[in-house]
Amino acid sequence: MSAPAVANEVNVARAQxxxxxxxTPLNPDLTIDTAGAIxxxxxxxxxxxxxxxxxxxxxxxxxxSVEERMELLAALLDSGVPARRLLVGTGCTALPDTLRxxxxxxxxxxxxxxxxxxxxxKNVSDxxxxxxxxxxxxRIGSSDLRIYFYxxxxxxxxxxxxxxxxxxxxxxxxxxxxxKDSSGDAESCTAFIRSFPELAVFPGTETLLLQMLRLxxxxxxxxxxxxxxxxxxxxxxxxxxxxxxxxxxxQEAITAVRSAIQTYPMIPAxxxxxxxxxGKPEWCNVRPPLTALPEGDRNKLFGALRxxxxxxxxxxx
Amino acid sequence: MSAPAVANEVNVARAQxxxxxxxTPLNPDLTIDTAGAIxxxxxxxxxxxxxxxxxxxxxxxxxxSVEERMELLAALLDSGVPARRLLVGTGCTALPDTLRxxxxxxxxxxxxxxxxxxxxxKNVSDxxxxxxxxxxxxRIGSSDLRIYFYxxxxxxxxxxxxxxxxxxxxxxxxxxxxxKDSSGDAESCTAFIRSFPELAVFPGTETLLLQMLRLxxxxxxxxxxxxxxxxxxxxxxxxxxxxxxxxxxxQEAITAVRSAIQTYPMIPAxxxxxxxxxGKPEWCNVRPPLTALPEGDRNKLFGALRxxxxxxxxxxx
Lengths: 317, 317
What we know:
- 2 copies of one chain form a homodimer.
- In chain A, strand 4, helix 4 and strand 5 form a beta-alpha-beta unit.
- The first copy, chain A, contains 12 helices and 8 strands.
- Chain A is globular and about 50 Å long.
- Chain A has one domain: TIM Barrel (Alpha-Beta Barrel).
- By secondary structure, chain A is α/β, with parallel strands linked by helices.
- At the A-B interface, helix 2, helix 3, helix 4 and helix 5 of A face helix 2, helix 3, helix 4 and helix 5 of B.
């Protein structure tokens, strides 16, 4: 399957398909490698990504200041990456930070924002969760705002509850567009799809892609797409074509690759693979509290990926 | 016992005694009420607080932008609050944010910083935890930096491990000064005190004050000090004077007050009490995801406090 060119992609009003939450390359002093980040996003789009999430968990969003995040988005757009193929992670613990990032995304005509709830305080009430989003929506005050909930209970520790979604959908039906379910749990994702047919629901792992497409899910936003985009996209396309047998085979193949990588810490592992593909050791840099994959794990990871049928370990540049 | 005047307090090189992590009053639009915050900090010091933590969990630190936090510290210092009686919460998820806040505290000659680890990623390795603090210390590069670890596993979900402390103490013996243990767990606090006699260890609740003073703890940094400062301070002074019997009685009294308040969400409950004391409804404002105490709980809380012997519900201003 040939990868579609960036410029030929059709704009869609709502995100769907296979989206990559881009990892963020760093210079040796741990500042963002802007040119490297732009190149990586363009590579992902050329490899078939329907769109890219800028500053999700995989992109180490919370490890960057608001200024760093705004500068990278501006640079990406200046470089010609289409705003309608970007979802921007904007949910911070502090309301003014969330507002600044969200305003930039809206003013730049990005397709939407993928919004974590404030994630420091725990045991948040449905009322508090509702207020967290409502306060942002009211203060942004724009009909162009499009919110995708970011449900990642294992990291945010603040689940997006059905009760809060119901209330927000009722109050802001045009603003609330979708949800990424990063629980990794098929039951959780199924419940979101069944309870909220008006939302675009994405499982946060491609291991659930085919199962959730059958139930009404719209695609996947998955970390592994940073290295295995073409294969994941091909499953999506095969399913669209109605080729069930081929879809099942492709699901097994991409699940095998995911299984190989996810025994390692995901972000350092992804960066290590890309580092190898590009022959650039600095691609391994991460900000604390993350740590680079130990040298001893590097070849083990590559071996496991090859054994799983992953074929793109060769250098691309 | 008469409360010491702000100006007469002796500067100490290391924090000890009873410290209040100040709650942060908000205007109706949820911006910080700067004049109200200054007045509250001065009230705490006049009520006997050895010092004040600016922007701890109780102060809704993570709900404010870096700019908001820097502006309030500057305003407090401009108002004449002594820098040596302030510990400043500076630990953020993003290294540049932690650096900006920490630099301001160091440049302002604050007694130290109370530093959360980066708290978005979970299951952080000892290596990652070490790197998170080491990166800040190396980049600040000042012998005036004094770090107090902020161990609050129930909220940060990133415990400060003994292994990381050992390594940081070895690498930066003059920088690492103390630890606040907000686990609420006597065993945890005892282990910190016994393992690290070189650190000033504060339990994060006054219910453990006497028990930990006996073991070598240096005081407490506790949310309840926002409303019950004088009583908590009097236990500390009584213990210093060696009056064991009176200390036990005072411990029971302050524990009863704590028990009454902690069946409610702590921050909204504290703000509600202060609102009542000052006759200012706006003192109840909190930023999402927190929510104000429901009207129906207000009188129940006041009743429980009075039943516990809390005597300062009368208006102070």
